[in-house]
Amino acid sequence: MNFKVILAAAALLATQSFAIIGIGGHYAPGFGTKMKGAGKAEVAKGIDFSHEGFDGTMQGFGFKLWIDLLPIFDIEATYNIQFGSYDASLFVNDPTGKNPPTELPLEIELAGTPFGKANPKFVASNLDVSLTYPITFIPVLRPYIGGGVTYHLNSFVLNQSFVQGVINDPAIADMIASAAQTKDLDAKALQEKAKELEDLGQTLKQRVQDKAMDEGLKTSIGGHVLVGMRAKLPLIPIAAYCNFKYYFGGDYPKEIDAGNMTLEVGGGFAL
After folding, report:
1. Contacts of 260 (CB under 8 A, 6+ apart)
2. Cα–Cα distance between 259 and 128 in angstroms, integer?
């Protein structure tokens, strides 16, 4: 009799530990992604530009919806957004040569991301649709493997060619040409020219920040494989999960060396 009770309890535990549908949120760092920096380079007469890079973990977060269709396979839909920050600046050179360049740090706002105006960020977001094969005989824990399709949405990198594209505006080019004329000027005129160049640098800074808002996100298609585990106690509508994903395919800016690895650790409601 006791043996039958134990069997019945085990069966109840196994059947009620997992739900038909769940939704949750998670921490989603990306590993191994690097961005190359670029040293100072002239983008116009008297004006230089440079940007830094980053190396290591991209911070991130995401959301997940899963549907269990026992005993064959399960389905997951996941949205992750990851980001790495870097610094970028314009440098206005002093035409007198007596003072160091004036640095104008750039802050931009990226359309399609949850960030306001801040130091530049490379933002990599993706939508994953995965089929997973679960191991179902373990109560409470549910390991699985799988893979699927990934829709990538990546931001641009604020680089020299982007800044030069802004400066190529004819009106801006005329202002630069005028401000760069320093031949045969006396000391007072050179000081006035230095102020003119600094004002022009501020104008360029605003133009670059405005243009960045028009860039949007670049889209591409790739794929992924994953290994993971969910955990859920019987009768309690709360689940925890952990996934490791490796991505392949997708387009990235030339400055980005994608690490293609993401860890998802989180939890949510399971009904």
Report:
1. 32, 246, 247, 248
2. 17
